[in-house]
Model the fold of this input.
Amino acid sequence: MSRRSVRNFKKEQINENNLTAIIEAGRAAPSGENERLTHIIVIQNSNILQELINISKKEFAKMIPDENTYKGLSSTIEHAHIADFHFNYTYFAPTFIVTAHKKGHTNAMADSVCVLENMIIAATALKIGSCYINPVHWLDDSQGFREFMYTIGLNPDETITGGLAIGYPENEMIFSSLQSSRTGNPVSYVR
Done:
C-alpha cells in the first residue's frame, strides 16, 4: 500500500544488488502458460537515455491527435510539438526499463504488465522509487523509434509493451505515509 508513482529522482544510480533484486522480481512474474516471453531491456547509460527521449519527441511530433485520441497520448503529442518544452517522460530516472514481448502473442500486454508490476512492488519494498511509463508502447509502430530500440536490444519480432522509470526518490518520505483518502479501482462483490 505504500507504492507511489515517483516523478522526481536523484541522479545517483541504484546499487547493483537492488537492481538485480528488482529485475529478478520481474522475471518471477506469472505469465500465460508459463512461457516467460517478456523481454526486459535495462538502460542506465545517460547518453542512450537522452537519445531515447530525443527520438521519442521527434516521433511524437509527427503525430496529430484527434478527438478520439487517448487523453494521455494526446497530451504527450501536444508537448512534443512545443519546441522549447523540456520533454522527458522518464522523469530523469537513472535507470529506465523497457519491456517487450512477441508480436501478435495473445498475452503480450498482460504478461508484460505482470513483470512491470512485480518490479514496481520490489522497488517499493527496497525504498526505490518507480513510475510506470506508457509512451514507449505508444511508439511501437514508429519506425524511427523501433530502429533506435533495435540498437539497444529490441528484436524485430517483438512489440514494445511498456516502461518503468526507477531510482532513488528525491523525497524519501514518500514511502512513510499511507494516504487514507487514496482512491482505487471500482470493486464488485458477488457472494
Notes: The two ends are 25 Å apart (CA to CA). The domain at 16-43+88-170 is CATH 3.40.109.10 (NADH Oxidase). Residues 108-125 form the longest helix (18 residues).
